[in-house]
User: Fold these one by one.
Assistant:
Number 1:
Amino acid sequence: MSDINPGRTVSLCIMSGKGGVGKTNLSLNLGYALRDMGHKTLLMDCDLGLANLDVLLGLAPEKNLQDLLAGRVDAGEVVQTVEDGLDILPAASGVPEMVEMDENQQDSLMDTLNGIITGYDFLLLDLGAGISGTVLSLARMAQMRVVLVTPEPTSLTDGYAVIKVLNAKYGVRDFLVVVNQASAQEARETFERLNNACINFLGFELMHLGHVRQDKAMTQAVLHQTALARHAPQCPAIKDITTLASRVARFRDDNLDTIAARKPLRQIPFVTR
Ligand SMILES: Nc1ncnc2c1ncn2[C@@H]1O[C@H](COP(=O)(O)OP(=O)(O)OP(=O)(O)O)[C@@H](O)[C@H]1O
Ligand SMILES: [Mg+2]
């Protein structure tokens, strides 16, 4: 397969060490924000053990990523349109064997995905928490990696662990950090703590993409099974997520030539700086 990316798709994964820090809600609302800016986006549920992106949208998909990988269905039967310009590729939940993928499964997943994501501006991968083999291999395949943390010390320690393992295993050194459920000041302090650990112990710096404020509208949106971007489009968390989306979109604009010459996902880690 050639290394040309005619759709100029940028892949971005959202990961965390600790579970429950807000990855799925961030992925979902970032998808809406990018779509609202005119970027065609595919949201992919990569929490292959405990998928739930579809639940946040009140969808009950009949076919999923696992069916696609098993060759039981075509991409067209699995990808669902949420809104014009925003599609979702759902996954099955409670499928323990998908938590770990061998090299062949990883290659097959990558080839399948590279085949269907041309035409999108962004591919957002909502990863499962932790450092399972599948999480790590998907994280290294993506062009951009967001590590989501909250100011809680446990979240920070676990976020550092993810970075450390990806660096040790695959040599990945480029990470964007988003601090969730934090004010701008708390986010700066949290980022500095994580960044200092990386500088001192791993020898590289992190990039601070931004933060998302704690917002009770998020809980309401989850209960209503509606994305916050539609449930309360003017709320503080959506304002913050829109800022994150603009930064991500600017990255794509600034790097279009490089991006267009590469597959959106590949087995060799991308170095974006
Ligand atoms: N900015 C926020 N303000 C208030 N609540 C939030 C915010 N972000 C996330 N939450 C809440 O945190 C909970 C967990 O969010 P989410 O499911 O997105 O986490 P996750 O990291 O994907 O979890 P998992 O690791 O299980 O996949 C949700 O109930 C959501 O309402
Ligand atoms: Mg999740």
Number 2:
Amino acid sequence: MQKRLFSCLRTLQHENPLGLPRSGTPPNLRARMQRGLPEKRPIKDVKRVIAISSAKGGVGKSTVSVNLALAFARSGLRSGVLDTDIFGPSIPTLLNLEGNEPRLSSNNQLIPLTNYGLKSMSMGYLVPETSAIVWRGLMVMKALQQLLHEVEWGGLDVLVLDLPPGTGDVQLTITQQIELDGAVIVSTPQDVALKDAVRGVEMFRKVKVPILGMVQNMSAFTCPNCSTTHSIFGREGVIKKCVEMNIKLLADIPLHPSICEDADRGQPTVVAEPDSLRAQVFKDLAADLRGQLQF
Ligand SMILES: Nc1ncnc2c1ncn2[C@@H]1O[C@H](COP(=O)(O)OP(=O)(O)OP(=O)(O)O)[C@@H](O)[C@H]1O
Ligand SMILES: [Mg+2]
């Protein structure tokens, strides 16, 4: 008798705590789909949740997220950062935690990894660094649900969500399913980035998430040789956009080689150079948000 195709397949072997196969093969999600999408709910054991967003890629969301979360931690708060970028997670590198895998708690929740007093969770801890994540939408949504709801934060005053670029499925799912206290939009002063930033603002407005303000990143660059200040991506783009859209300007972060170098060696600026002017910008940002959200 001819063998049926599926009887030849081995049962899926789950190799990591999320139950997500390292091979990238999606599990059966039909049952989950039939139950429908979950309702908007808070992240368990977390008092305040702040999303860091920008529709444009590479403008500094992860840099701002990690330094902001560290600034919260350094001010004595119980702080965490959740990397919701499924395809390009940055937090393991930024916190020098690459290659570490989270353990599971007794009730099968992921235990965050901690460095510099900051708790973190990321897709980067759950799949090997070299594996390309080539999942379709449903698989991405499953991973996202688990990152959002199956992490044992163990009591946090504030959780910073590092969002992926764009205004697609992941962003919409987060804004529609999670009780966010507010969103911070990051942009460079360049026109092309600002156009996308406006789209990001519109998305949060549509789903009625309060916009706490915008951060202008990579504005002024002061030459280390001649001390002249250059505006590589423009100088005031975000400042003007804030006025136009009636949004608060939260911070103006200079373009500085140390910010990039600190990130690459897994010691964000707030940790590597805590007394620098650059670190102070992140500390001021943390203080502003803390004041706005009263925690
Ligand atoms: N103010 C800054 N000065 C110098 N380099 C910076 C600054 N902000 C960010 N960078 C660098 O720019 C690059 C992009 O930053 P980052 O990864 O934070 O952006 P992102 O918006 O999270 O990107 P993605 O959309 O891919 O998630 C990184 O190499 C980072 O170190
Ligand atoms: Mg990023």
